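The material for today's practical consists of a large collection of protein records. Getting from the letters to the tokens is the skill we practise here. To make this concrete, we reproduce a full record directly below:
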Amino acid sequence: MTARPALWCAIAVFMLLLPMTAAGKVLRVVGDDNYPPYLFLGSDGKPRGYVVDEWKLWEKKTGVHVELVATDWADAQQRLQSGQADVIDMIFRTPEREALYDFTEPFATVHVGVYVDAGITGIDGPDALSGFNVGVERGDACVDRLHRAGVDSLHEYPGYADIIGAAQRLDIRIFCMDELPAAYYLYRLQGDTRFVKAFDFYTDEFRRGVRKGDTKTLALVEHGMAMITPAEREALKRKWMGRSLDFAPYMRLAGYALLVAIGLGVALLLWGLSLRRAVERRTRDLEHLAHHDALTGLPNRRMLQFRLDQLTGQANASPLALLAVDLDNFKRVNESLGHAAGDLLLQGAAKRLGDAVPEHDLIAHLGGDEFVVLLASNVTAMSVSATAGRIQRALSEPYPLDGSEVVVGASIGVSLCPVDGRDGATLLRNADAALDRAKRSGAGDCRFYNRSLTDQASSWLQLGVKLRRAIQDGAFELHYQPQIDLRSGRVVAAEALLRWPDGEPDWMPEHFIPYAEETGLIEPIGEWVLEHAVRQLAQWRADGLPSFRMAVNLSPRQAVDAQLPLFLVRVLADTGLSPELLELQIAESGLMEHGAATASLLQSLRRLGVGLSIDDFGTGYSSLAYLRRLPVEAIKLAPSFLAGLPEDSGSRAIVAAVIGMAHSLDMRVIAGAVERAEQAECLDELGCDVVQGHLYAHAMPADEFLDWYRAHPVCAVPSAADMPLQGA
């Protein structure tokens, strides 16, 4: 190895001083503890590998004692920078590291690749990693390289084994790793069938590093390594790599007589390596083609069957849904525009499927115009119907082909596991049967293999179409139900309740709101409700009504929407309504489901001055302990709490306890769904603050509410013998 002139000067000085300084000197070396075959921990927890034996030889040659510490890569760099180590082994020289370290000459070439789950296609370079979470080793050169390539979504792990473990758990599905340890850990941890190398990221050279400016240690390291003979290095490589990598000794022994033969050998070796790489590349290509469709790049039937067998073969298999999707009128496109246009349409449909179903487990192309979508999380009849609706809308958008726009639809057949089958073959067969029924019933239909579920799905899909039209046409309206203070009998709030006058008779809010929540339509609906309720209260105040609050329900999706405070600021500013006159009701079930995200949003809303209450309290395994940490002012009892009042002593005791605990936390208690005078009298005795229900008034359109309010400025608690006060 040829050293730089300055380095040779340092070596010469060191050799003059060596007899005086070697005795008692210790060289502290650190390296990565999970980089086989160079350096890794054995079953006894001690360092093993090529580097360990190499430093033992170095120690023998120089007489300087070496303390080798194998640790995780980030810690190794920290030890060197903090002075706890003198040398770091197996390090790449990068622009970022040159400011911190001085480096030896290179001693090994290393290839680095990006590895992906076999079910992911289209990853052919750093640009394709955008939007993916990439696993890396903390402190690895991969981190800097990926950042320079514009990839910022990185998940750092202490070591390579941790990366492979996370990939097997599907915490990550893409990772960057050096080729040698990747091959070792994928084979050892049985991940080599699940992950493939998507592309070679870069090639670099191993060096040894010292702290910037420590030329004496650098010279010592280089001098000692130069004393190790080629034969000794060859023995180390045979021991740890299993093959000879250095032909120099043979070339020197052969002399000039063998130069021609060695030249031919080198040429043959290069040709063999080139052939080997070509074979490996071709093998990877063939393996990819064996499991993926050449036209769309999607997994094929074999890959789908393999994934289905994996999921259905688990002891506690979760519910699955298989959606067989067939493009309507695809044959006409082929006949009229040609097969090239048909291929472009299929490629466009494949991309739209991935965009429409981001939560899919796998999307496969089975040939022709037939696709299959596999869902393995949050599988319910309603969620699958919502997904089918998104697929049909996405695939029915016009396709630009051959200078014109082509419109095709999609028919869908659905089978569910375990309802319609417990193995992949049965699920595929039943999904095809359902698809056949859907196509026979007319283009654009969706059928479940289970006929009763098909009826439900048809109803839900029809509901989705009409909901979107209702949002566009402004077909919703708000009704208002008063909330009355039990002590004074005065109205303290009005709850805004969504109504759909033009909807089907059985499409009540409790039916269409969950579907809107599932499909994401609840967000525009929720914004409409909030804005109209605030504007209505501002109008009533302008008409001379006294101040009372407007109570509006938030959906679980709205309760985690970070843009909600900004939306409210705009609406309140536009109407001039004071924030404390708006009270937002968050269902307890949504609060328990989203936890920290909802709590953070509530803090932001409270800082605006908006009032907050927990709706349907008692339905989410309630604990008043968590209420202490939330900025809520009131809880609204679930109707089930009132069902037994006043006759059932158990119900009475529970309501009394909840009221007492809420008051101890300075919270108001609201009782909804009060139907009978006996219930109101009992709630008054127990100390409830506010009541609401048909006993006083049903929910009314804005004009009727205004008339009712003017006719009932004070509402006394009716006795059991009184007639309930009802709205006109």
The radius of gyration is 36 Å. The longest strand covers residues 195-211. Residues 428 and 645 are 53 Å apart (CA to CA).
